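Two records follow; treat each independently.
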Amino acid sequence: MKIAIIGAGNMGGATARGLATGTVFKAAEITVSEPNKETLAKIKADVPEINIMTDNLAAVADADVVVTAVKPWLVQPVIEGIRPTLAKRRPLIISIAAGIKFADLNGFLADDTFQLVSVIPNTAIAIKQSPTLIAFNDKVSDENKALVKKMFDELGSAIIIDEKQMAAGTAVTSCGIAYAFEYIKAAMQAAIELGFYPHVAKAMIDQTVLGAVELLEHNGTYPDTEIYKVCTPGGITIKGLNEMTKEGFDHAVIAGLMKAAGK
């Protein structure tokens, strides 16, 4: 089985590199098409077995899976440029582009019978830690659903949702990583004000956040359960939490996510 990835930016490049070290595709079965030769050279240097080229038509000529990992406004010209080959090959098509719906893809393809997948990772895909949102159209076979899930489970965690949930999910995960960084930044600023050097503050906060996530995963619990374990009655933790609530922490997080989701 062969896969062609069109676009080698942050998402396309990370996807190619990650898949090359996974079990679904061999590196030699992966072709990356990208107009920037310098970007292609970096991918080739990282994974010499990957095939690279600047010709999208040539890239998809024998592909069983085609991934479009370009900016949303480039999806239409890219697909229209390779449409004749897609019509002959009938590959599984995976789109990595926020805001592009199956109806849009059907229009670009001038055909509503393709197996289509919409995928939204976040930037942690670069280290195989992305919560990747995946939606399938009603044409995708069970075999291909399993294939796509395995692909992105190897790049973090594949989360299957309905297409109508994509905008909300994008706010929570793709945008959400920036909000997680914002908390880390604010906590670091507090630690520095409390007398710690920046590198020490960063180490403290990074491990605290990592440990919190690992605890939730390990115990299979929700945040409230772990919060209650830390909050001694009358203790400093509950005082800090109450002050955060008073200052609008919870509201700010919820309002930010709702705004990002267009609500």
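The next record belongs to a different protein.
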Amino acid sequence: MWFKNLRLYRLTDDWTANEDQLNEALAQFPFNGLSALQESTFGWVPPFGDSPLLCENVGGRLFMAAQIQEKILPASVLKEHLEEKILAVEEADGRRPGRKEKEALKEAIRAELLPRAFHKTRRVSLWIDPSRHWLVLNAASEKTADDVTAGLRDAIGSLPIVPLGKLIAGGDLLTAWYHDPQRRPEGTELSADLELVMAQDPTVKARYRNLDLDAPEIRHSLDSGMRIRQLGIVINDQCQGVIDDAFALKRLKYSDTLVETNGDSDDPRTDTLLMSDTLTAWLTALEPQITEPGI
């Protein structure tokens, strides 16, 4: 298990639930496939395929996985079928349907098409680190992360978390990292995969790739009042990607040296431990730069 996109949260209270309690809670909300007329469904699945457990403790971290399934029913398809129905009513009755009738036709079309629609399935893994007060979620989009944290909150009754982006002035901090290497967390190197925005007008943007960090183009943009929205990052020489001003990490790739550390082990927990140890070391180095929410 190698997380590719990180959404980071701080626990605002001590975490007390253990894996047994979480297994019991998540078992009340298992993933079930879509029924014919459902548009989406959400539930919990085992984080590791060789065990039925819905939560496992690996290296002191509690790993879980949610699964989301959604029907693909494009708005353009609904619109096309609705226009055909409206035309049929006009030809048969010599009148154009009113608003309420159109809505009824639309719902009837949706019910007709849903059983035949394709669906997509997404699996979203996460871990909770009770000792260091982190929740780390493998999701590219904020909406997906919100759906999963809401599902976890429903399952366990309470989830005291704050997105890391709300505890850090992300753009200002990334810009400070760029200007002053001493401000960077230990083990942090930067690369010139940058997106800059004007502080007074975020619609004014500049993108730079494959340049030296001290390239005059970048310096000039920053001197003109722009700040960093996204920045390339290398963590402990073991993984690289980009970090944005909400402190979400994306497009993470892990070094061959790290990936090959587990040798020939087929146990997915070995990779999971390597990955989470690497990222936790960096998160721990980041902690002094966070305005803590009263833990």
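Discussion point: The chain has a mean pLDDT of 90. How would you locate this feature using only the token line?
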